UniProtKB/TrEMBL annotation:
It comes from the Bacteria. Belongs to the universal ribosomal protein uL10 family. Keywords: Ribonucleoprotein, Ribosomal protein, RNA-binding, rRNA-binding. Part of the ribosomal stalk of the 50S ribosomal subunit. The N-terminus interacts with L11 and the large rRNA to form the base of the stalk. The C-terminus forms an elongated spine to which L12 dimers bind in a sequential fashion forming a multimeric L10(L12)X complex. GO terms for biological process: translation. One of its GO terms (molecular function) is large ribosomal subunit rRNA binding. InterPro entries: Ribosomal_uL10 (IPR001790), Ribosomal_uL10-like_sf (IPR043141), Ribosomal_uL10_bac (IPR022973), Ribosomal_uL10_bac_type (IPR047865). Forms part of the ribosomal stalk, playing a central role in the interaction of the ribosome with GTP-bound translation factors. This is Large ribosomal subunit protein uL10. It comes from Prochlorococcus marinus str. GP2. GO terms for cellular component: ribonucleoprotein complex; ribosome.
Amino acid sequence: MGRTLENKQQIVTEIKSLLNDSEMAVVLDYKGLTIKEMSDLRSRLQTTNGICKVTKNSLMRKAIDGNSNWNDLESLLTGTNAFVLIKEDVGGAVKAIQSFQKDTKKSETKGALFEGRLLSDSEIKEIASLPSKEVLMAKIAGALNGIATKIAISINEVPSGLARSLKQHSEKSES
């Protein structure tokens, strides 16, 4: 039995909502994947705020219709597709997808859309090679801490230097 019109409208509304919250969409060919493998992909994506949705291309077309950020996704809507919608940790989610693909050797990336632009395979791989959000934040914190330390040392050095100068001046005056 097919889906009702009301059910299809609910699916389109849900997809629109997910797209509005997403920064990136990756389209995978999921042909040949088992339910267990799809569950594995979904669990890998959970830690990175990624969601894997399998839906008909026609419903995805209705969801992106009129949304300029996602219009270019249209060119990827052929065949059997799984849509990975990524909210925050784009690099981590792409790494999770590539790790899954390496382990299963069944799924291929058809393409990705990031900030309204289709990405090539090499660009997708570059995103995966970026350090994680936590690593970048640690590097920034370390750099800021280094600057704060240098400022503190410099500020501390001013009174010390002044005290040394006064001491030398007073010793010269006494002699």
